[in-house]
Write a structure and sequence with these properties.
The chain has 236 residues and is an alpha+beta fold. Helices cover 45% and strands 12% of the residues.
Length: 236
C-alpha cells in the first residue's frame, strides 16, 4: 500500500492520534473524531497511518496502537473486558487457537480464554468447515478440520482425561479443570518453568500456587520435562 495515500489531512493529525492512544491505550472512533475534530474518513486515514488494532470483542468498536498490546500465549491482550488479538477478528482467532491446540478446546475453555460468548461463532465456523467438532464424553471438543490433526488432538485429550485425580497438598482442593490446564501447558510448552506455567495460566485468570503446580508435576511424573524444576524448593 502506498504510504502517501494514508497521509492524514493535517500534518500533525498522526502525532495527535498517537498521543491520544498512548494516553488512553484504548479508545473508540467517535472519541478519536472528537480529539482530531475531523470527519470519519479523515480519522480513519490518520488511524491507518499510525498503525492500529481493533478489538475482537464489542463488535470491533475499540481501537489501540499496534505497538501497545503485550500478547499472552494465546495471542490475546485485554484492556479491562475489551479483548484484542494479534490474529485479528474473533473468527480468525478461534480458528488459529483451535488448530494450534494440541488437545483441542471445549466450548467452555474457549469462552473462558476469550472472555465472551462464542456459541454462534463456533457454530458458524463448524458449518463453514474452518474447524471441526467431535463428541468427547458428554462434551463437544473443537479440533482442526483435517482428520490427521484432529485425531492427534483427540488422543491427547483422551490421555489427559484418563489421568487420575490429584490428591492436593495444599489446604484448598485443586479442581480437575485447573489440573487439566496445567497439563495442557506442559504438553504445549515442555520447556516452561514452574513460574512460566503460573504466568501462562495467570493470563487466563487461572491462579495456582507454585506448590500446586509442583504437586501436579509430581503426581504425573512430569518433573523431568520441566525446565529448572523445582522452582523454589532449592531456596528453602
Amino acid at each position: 500500500m502506498n504510504r502517501n495515500s494514508l497521509k492524514p489531512a493535517s500534518d500533525n493529525a498522526a502525532d495527535i492520534l498517537i498521543s491520544c492512544l498512548k494516553k488512553r491505550r484504548v479508545t473508540t472512533l467517535d472519541e478519536m473524531k472528537k480529539t482530531l475534530k475531523a470527519s470519519r474518513p479523515t480519522t480513519f486515514r490518520a488511524l491507518k497511518h499510525v498503525g492500529y488494532l481493533s478489538s475482537y470483542s464489542h463488535a470491533g468498536k475499540y481501537y489501540t496502537l499496534n505497538t501497545i498490546p503485550v500478547f499472552d500465549s494465546n495471542g490475546l491482550w485485554f484492556h479491562g473486558d475489551i479483548g484484542f488479538s494479534k490474529h485479528g477478528t474473533l473468527r480468525t482467532t478461534i480458528v488459529v487457537m483451535v488448530k494450534g491446540a494440541s488437545a483441542g478446546f471445549t466450548h467452555e475453555e474457549l469462552q473462558a480464554i476469550l472472555r465472551l460468548r462464542i456459541h454462534d461463532t463456533l457454530h458458524d465456523l463448524v458449518s463453514d468447515r474452518l474447524i471441526g467438532r467431535v463428541q468427547f464424553d458428554a462434551l463437544f471438543l473443537y479440533v482442526a478440520p483435517t482428520s490427521n490433526i484432529s485425531g492427534s488432538q483427540v488422543e491427547k485429550r483422551r490421555a489427559v482425561a484418563l489421568m487420575p485425580t490429584l490428591s492436593p497438598r495444599d489446604d484448598r482442593t485443586l479442581d480437575m479443570a485447573a489440573i487439566v490446564e496445567i497439563l495442557l501447558v506442559v504438553i504445549r510448552k515442555q520447556k516452561a518453568s514452574v513460574s512460566q506455567i503460573q504466568g501462562i495460566l495467570g493470563a487466563k485468570n487461572i491462579m495456582v500456587s507454585d506448590r500446586e503446580v509442583e504437586s501436579v508435576l509430581d503426581q504425573y511424573d512430569l518433573k523431568k520435562k520441566i525446565k529448572n524444576y523445582p522452582s523454589r524448593r532449592l531456596q528453602k
